[in-house]
Structures are given as C-alpha cells and as structure tokens.
Amino acid sequence: MESARAGKHIFCEKPIDLDIPTIQNALKIVEECNVKLMVGFNRRFDSNFRKIKQMVLEGKIGEPHILKITSRDPAPPPAEYVAVSGGMFLDMTIHDFDMARFIVGSEVEEIFVAASVMVDPKIGEAGDVDTALITLRFENGAMGVIDNSRKAVYGYDQRVEIFGSKGMIKVDNNAPDNHSYYGNDGVHASLPLNFFMDRYIEAYANEIKEFCSAILNDDPISVGGMDGLRAVMIGLAAKKSVQENRPIKISEILEVHN
Is 219 helix (H, G, I), strand (E, B) or coil? Predict the structure, then answer.
C-alpha cells in the first residue's frame, strides 16, 4: 500500500497477506493509485507448464476433466519458519492452487483436504501439517487432485497431468540430464533437480522479464492481485477443511472474512 501511494509498481511474493480484508484493501489502493502489481507465482513461467497451458487453450485435450498435481519438497523447513509462514497451504501448496486455476482455466469452487504430520513432529507442534491429499472441484465441472509432502528423499518432485475428453498431457520431473543406464542390477537415471532454486531458475527469470516489460512498455500483467487473492482464499479453505474434516466451498471463506 505504501508503494502504491508512492507511485511505485510492485512485485510481491506470495502470499500478499494472510488476511482477506487486508488483501482486498491493498488491491483497492493499487487500483486507485493506477500502479501495476505482479504476484510471484513463478511456476506459470516455467516452459513445461506453459506448454501444458497452451495445449489446453488449443483444445488438444478437449474439455478438461481431471487435473493431477504432485508437489513434494526434498526437505521440510524449520518449525520456526512454519510457525510464521501461514502454514503449508499458504506457503507451499499455494503455488499448486494457482497452478490448478491456471491450467484448468476455471475457478476452484470447493476443496476437501486429508492431512497429517508424517515428516517432522515439530511441524505438528507448530500447528501445521506436512503431508496432504487435496481434492478440488472447479466451476466448469472439472476435478483436481494435489498431493503434497514436505520430504521426498529423492529430490524436488514436481509433476502435472491434465486429462480431458480428447486426450492427456503430462509433465514429469526435470533432472540434471536425461540419461538412463541399463545394467544387470536394473535401470538407473539421475534424481530430480534438488529444489526450487534449481528447478525453476528459468521461471524466475521469465517472470521478472515480464514485470520489467510491463513497466517499460505499459503491458498488462498476466498474474496480478486477484490471482494472489484467490490463491489465499483456497489456502484458507484448505486449512478450514482440515480443521472441520469436511468439504469447504470457497464462498464460505469470503463470508467468514467479510
């Protein structure tokens, strides 16, 4: 809000805030001050996921039916960080919520989450979870599944699959190389890239290029404040689903926070 009032364009990491009215107020001021706001959902700028999005837009899979996202970190963050981060759904899974909206091209209508502490007891003591299975219902009728873990011993696990009436598109993990070694003890390949700094280096560069271009050429921002708000709404609904052990409509979150 201070940046907007100072006439500065804004690049903001996710989440914009953990409070819905605070985000709404910030977006109102950004609009009033006529500055650009870009939210750091870098995965939209990954060439693999952009390819999926483009093919969906081209109708290659027909009508989207089922989305599957696997997102697993190689190691959990410290419990001290977890306690102030907003929790897994607003810190880690928020990227997957944005990716789900991006790929399917429809808003999430309802969410149900089964979650547990299976990686680090200290995360549970900090009031969070580290393992989750999430089901989504979209306004266009499509359904989605996200599975999260804070610890995959083999590396950073980032996979997406979208299935529709005419076919399927999938993206597997990136690795340092694509060799396969066949021997009498099995078939071996390189582990996935270690973490987001390696896996999404191209995406980080691409999003900053778009932000700079938007400022220099007055181009539109492809991932703005409303995208940031909607991802937080889904994240808060995910937390509520775990707490109440039931499906939560996203509209409930607006009712609670307004």
Answer: coil
Domain housing 61: 2-257
| Count of the separate structural domains present in the chain | 1
- Distance CA(176)–CA(179), nearest Å, equals 9
Q: How confident is the model over 115-148, as pLDDT tens digits? A: 999 999 999 999 999 999 999 999 999 999 999 9
Q: What is the pTM of this model?
A: 0.94
Task: Assess contact for 237 and 246: CB atoms under 8 A.
Answer: no
Which tokens hold the place of 98?
A: 């944005």
User: Residue 143's domain is classified under what CATH number?
Assistant: 3.30.360.10
For 148, the token pair is 């999260």
β-strand partners of 167:
164
pLDDT at position 258, please?
Answer: 61
Report phi then psi at 56, rounded to 5.
-65, -45
Q: Which of 163, 228, 186, 201 is nearest to 16 (CA)?
A: 228
CB 32 within 8 A of CB 5: no
